[in-house]
From TrEMBL:
Residues 98-179 form the FAR1 domain. Residues 38-66, 137-162 are annotated as: Disordered. It comes from the Eukaryota. InterPro entries: FAR1_DNA_bnd_dom, MULE_transposase_dom. The lineage of its organism: Eukaryota, Viridiplantae, Streptophyta, Embryophyta, Tracheophyta. Residues 44-55 have a biased composition (Basic and acidic residues). Pfam families: FAR1, MULE. This is Protein FAR1-RELATED SEQUENCE. Residues 340-435 form the MULE transposase domain. It comes from Saponaria officinalis.
């Protein structure tokens, strides 16, 4: 949803917008290139666009690989498997594409490296290096002074995703240089050594090429999954866009492409690339006048009701990423019934892929009352912090909940710990049970185990009884080394009813009370 900023006062912007992506990130951006293809890795880098360059002849490092059209600058009978030394071209891009063709038939991925230029940042490229992606050594593990994850499902700080390094000190590389030729100097031109001629650029030539690799090469059927090969063609992109518009889930889309192509290895991009591409399509759908209309409606409500409150946040493309509102009745209800809040984000709108989050409470008639509503584009800690702080601002009182019920989400837990340090964060038992079923294995068919697990959840009277029941269940079913049960035990105070009797919770065990409210909102969204 795009907005005309001229109609509104200054608002918050999202500073974290630099769409250069690799596999280590949770989200990629797919842009259309001039040759009519979408890159699965993100933005294509033109010459000099993303390389840090100093004046004169400098050295820079660019670890990304862009997708450029393949060209043929060698005869058909050329040995593409062997050394490429001596091949020349008027463009270094063509030599780079030749090296990519070589990497494709041999079985490795290419990574750009050093670039040298003459004449400053916009000067001519005089030398370039291209490496095997396995070049270099893995980063050494430095001693960390930060607190380690205690093994629980939720710790105070988010742990980084562990990514296996592909660096194996492979020495395979290709180096090309710009050759110069002599030309007679004209009037006003600088003469080289006073000999009556100047040096002008001629052709790029491959001057070094180490062919040998020290690692296992990729079989042909999996080479399309290399960084330098992964791509979503224009035809595939159009098909994916049609399926997304008709609300076909991304997983179903990928299975369809895989079946049509004869297997995952023939799709040309990974499932993660596909999900990221669909995500960007959905974000692009938030455009036109929809956001403008929503904000205008909220402004109209605010003009009619001075106590009406709303806030929103935009990204650099003026798309709405965060939106919160509440009316005067919601504030009155919150001041009366703020002891327990249920906040559930399991519902998403279909059209814009936004997360619908409703703040719901219980009144003295045991009925749901809404305290506020929000739409978010992601479930990051920063987004939840913004939402909870905005919610507090909207109430304008130092009134905080005693208990907050949510689903099991690390980012949300981090935000609650920061914004509501004095409130008890409780996890929805229904979500824990659903999550547990996927970890029970054969035990989920054992009624005796089910009774033992349910007793630990909500059948114990105090902590001593819980510890006895938990230890007996773990021992009887040999779960002492099960990682999931260890993590679940680490956050037991967030879900065990026997350990939360010191905090008022209105007898609530689940955040499902808010789901009917979420559905009512989402149906009209």
């Amino acid at each position: 949803m795009n907005l005309d900023l001229n109609d509104f006062p200054p608002i918050e912007q999202d500073p974290n917008r630099d769409y250069v992506f690799t596999d280590n990130l949770d989200l990629s951006v797919a842009h259309q290139l001039e040759e009519g293809e979408y890159t699965a890795q993100g933005r294509s880098r033109c010459e000099g666009e993303s390389e840090r360059i100093n004046d004169d002849e400098t050295t820079t490092t660019d670890p990304s690989v862009s997708h450029l059209p393949q060209v043929s600058i060698v005869p058909h009978d050329f040995d593409i498997f062997g050394s490429l030394v001596g091949v020349t071209s008027s463009s270094w891009v063509e030599l780079y594409d030749l090296y990519k063709q070589h990497s494709r038939v041999v079985g490795f991925s290419v990574r750009k490296s050093t670039t040298r230029r003459r004449g400053g940042p916009n000067g001519i490229v005089t030398e370039k290096y291209f490496l095997c992606s396995c070049e270099g050594k893995p980063k050494s593990k430095k001693a960390s002074k930060t607190r380690e994850n205690d093994g629980s499902l939720e710790s105070g700080k988010r742990s980084r995703k562990r990514v296996v390094s592909t660096r194996m000190s492979c020495e395979a590389f290709l180096r090309l240089k710009l050759r110069f030729k002599r030309r007679e100097s004209g009037r006003g031109e600088h003469e080289s050594s006073g000999k009556g001629y100047v040096l002008v650029p001629d052709v790029y030539e491959i001057v070094s090429h180490v062919v040998a690799h020290n690692h296992t090469l990729t079989p042909r059927r999996w080479q399309d999954h290399h960084h330098s090969e992964r791509r979503i063609s224009q035809k595939e992109g159009a098909l994916i866009e049609v399926m997304t518009d008709t609300r076909v889930p991304a997983a179903v889309q990928y299975r369809f492409l895989s079946t049509s192509c004869g297997g995952d290895e023939n799709v040309g991009h990974t499932q993660k690339d596909h999900f990221n591409f669909v995500n960007r399509l959905k974000m692009k759908a938030i455009e036109g006048g929809d956001a403008q209309t929503v904000i205008e409606m909220l402004q109209k409500r605010q003009a009619e009701d001075p106590c009406f409150f709303f806030r929103f946040k935009l990204d650099d493309n003026c798309r709405v990423t965060h939106l919160f509102w509440r009316d005067s009745m919601m504030k009155e209800d919150y001041l009366l019934y703020h002891d327990v809040i249920i906040f559930d984000t399991t519902y998403r709108t279909n059209k814009y892929n936004l997360i619908c989050g409703a703040f719901v409470g219980i009144n003295n008639h045991w009925s749901n009352v809404m305290f506020g509503c929000a739409f978010l584009s992601d479930e990051k800690t920063e987004s939840f912090e913004w939402l909870f702080e905005t919610f507090n601002e909207s109430m304008g009182e130092n009134v905080f909940p005693i208990s907050i019920f949510t689903d099991q989400d690390q980012a949300m837990s981090n935000a609650i710990e920061k914004v509501y340090p004095m409130s008890r964060h409780r996890l929805c038992l229904w979500h824990i049970l659903q999550n547990a079923l996927s970890h029970f294995g054969s035990l989920k068919k054992d009624p005796t185990f089910q009774r033992a697990f349910n007793k630990c959840l909500r059948g114990c009277f105090n902590e001593t009884e819980f510890e006895l029941a938990w230890n007996k269940m773990i021992t009887d079913y040999g779960l002492q080394h099960d990682t999931w049960f260890k993590r679940l035990y680490g956050i037991r105070r967030k879900w065990c009813t026997a350990l939360s009797k010191d905090f008022f919770s209105a007898g609530i065990l689940s955040s499902q009370r808010s789901e009917s409210t979420n559905h009512a909102i989402g149906f009209h969204a």
